[in-house]
Amino acid sequence: MMLGLLGSAILGGGVAVGGYKLLEPERGLAPQTVAADPNVRYTSELRNSTYTVPEGLNFTAAAASVTPAVVHVMTEYAPKASQGGDMSRMDPFLRQFFGEEFDQYQGRGRQQGPQQGSGSGVIIAANGYIVTNNHVIEKADKIEVVMDDKRKFQAELVGADPTTDLALLKVKADNLPFVRYGNSDNVKVGEWVLAVGNPFNLNSTVTAGIISAKGRNINILRREDNMGIESFLQTDAVVNPGNSGGALVNLNGDLVGINSAIASHTGSFEGYSFAVPSSIVSKVVDDLLKYKTVQRALLGVQIREVDATLASEKKLKSLNGVYVMSLGKNSSAADAGLQEGDIITEINGVKVNTSSQLQEQVARFRPGDKIKVTYLRGSDSRVATATLRNATGTTDIVRDEVATLKYEGATLAPVSRQELNKLGIDGGAKINGIKGSNFRETGIADGFIITRIDKNKVTKPQDVQRYLEAAKETDGALVEGVYPDGRKAYYPIGQAQ
Predict the structure, then answer these.
(1) Residues labelled as active-site residues
(2) Which residues of 24-51 are buried (b: 16+ CB within 10 A; e: fewer)?
(3) Is residue 370 domain-resident?
């Protein structure tokens, strides 16, 4: 850039000198005089540069209302090379969106001291509730929030949902500025939006763009259980590392999405970014507040998007809708009368043509809720009422409220959400009081988190009691788990010792 400026200066100087030589009167000729024109005026006077923004295109109003409610989320991690900050969790999947240089930005890898990461968050309630991305805070030992006015608060993790990459934080403060939810269903492709966040630790950065697409699946939340929900709003508003968890708002300043990812080969913005729509954000946040865990409702179908190949193979008359490949036994779809080969075209009157669109519509509901499913069977259009179920096949609400219990003289307690995130586990039971219990000869130390007994996964204290009681009738059991410092260990219990 400096070379360009120098070149411009040299070129400008050359033009000036050349112009001077061209205008210099020839020697021997009398110099000519130019009479002053009374109508010519100098233009150096400062003028009012206020510009009236056309109605409906007022970026300044939206930016002014939203910026105070977008915070900088600072995280701290134990010195482990496998941990990091903004967007580190999903390696190597996210690296295709953020590039190898992202590690250098986050300071991961060879450091000996505590590592730090950063992202953004959006205040959604005046009493201190903040929504951000799960990958911004996952496994963090410490979460600090920096307000736009430079105030700092320690944040508590209320709950997180990896399937949507959302998390809810709480700070002890009142009368905070906040952003109101907008309806992402009403957002149209081509509509102006603003992204507000803290890219590269640059606080309170606002960028503008348009909605490029809706219902976008970029295969970034891949999970073994296939429960990840991707129906992103795609925008060309500039988003960079650190923007994660920030606000995507319309020109009214209403929250229509939480910025989550970018498509990048270099680690920086290259044209497109992706946000979780507010229709999903509001439901996830409401679940975390009420139940401490997200209530996931399932229709119970395996589907495939309809394309020209499938239409030709199955002799379909339309390319609209999603094709039902199979149904789960006793699923809500099967009970509603759907069959393999049906084509689902609408959920509650909303058209669905892709897997992500179907997922987004169903994900708005809880187990026990009823939805209207419009589908084609042959050339007949039909409507069925389906009662949604949870992952266990019931309509029960799942609550993240697990009690501590006494077993064999020891205390088994649930593991805190913060510790689950820190250790990268999704369940377990922490055992204490070993010395005065029947576990004293096993080698287990206080604080050990039991995650598995034989082939059985432990998610709560009651699992330990159930599996060890069953093992008393066999040759004993192998207890697997991890200590709070990350050390893994295995202990034989019973006759297997």
Answers:
(1) 135, 165, 244
(2) eeeeeeeeeeeeeeeeeeeeeeeeeeee
(3) yes
